[in-house]
Amino acid sequence: MAKHKPTLREEIEQAITDVPDFPKKGILFKDITTFLHNGKLFNEYIQMLAHRYQAYKVEYVIGIEARGFMIASALAFALNAGFVPIRKKGKLPGKVLSQTYSLEYGKDSMEIKEDAFSGLKGVNVILIDDLMATGGTACAALKLISKLEAKCIELCCLVNLLEFAENKERKEIESKTHVFSLIDVE
């Protein structure tokens, strides 16, 4: 009998490490760096995404700090597109736009440079994050993209925690753009 050849999703899911009680007790952290260490898998994932987005004429790939940077910059390279970081408050020089969002323990802000798209309006962008839980950071990132009048084709996250699917931020995201994830975790 032929052995089952694992799918890309299955291989990546096996390569991601679960770290209990990190960064605080009660959290099961999905460590994607163990997946990123595998050059073959990482390359296959980026090529799959590049194939998915090649017809959209993506001009910029936006990465959410910090693990979204790793995937977004590699995808930008594969698509011959620009890379734009969205960072925590105070980490970007020059003129920035800021967006506040709620956390389970308070509020935080993220920023994008005002000239991120060279002053162009209506550019096609893909938003990348490693993992979507409550959707707070992704929702704030979409608001920043909207302030710059860009068109977010899709929010792409490697891992999607479905237990938070009914959160208001998640509903707001789904009303603004399509969400694609390779790994959905119940």
Automatic annotation (TrEMBL):
Pathway(s) of this molecule: Purine metabolism; AMP biosynthesis via salvage pathway; AMP from adenine: step 1/1
Alphabetically ordered keywords of this record: Cytoplasm, Glycosyltransferase, Purine salvage, Transferase
Presence of the UniProt keyword Glycosyltransferase in the record: yes
Catalytic activity entry: AMP + diphosphate = 5-phospho-alpha-D-ribose 1-diphosphate + adenine
EC number annotated for this UniProt entry: 2.4.2.7
Subcellular location: Cytoplasm
Record NCBIfam families: apt (TIGR01090), PRK02304.1-3 (NF002634), PRK02304.1-5 (NF002636)
Full protein name: Adenine phosphoribosyltransferase
Gene source species: Helicobacter bilis
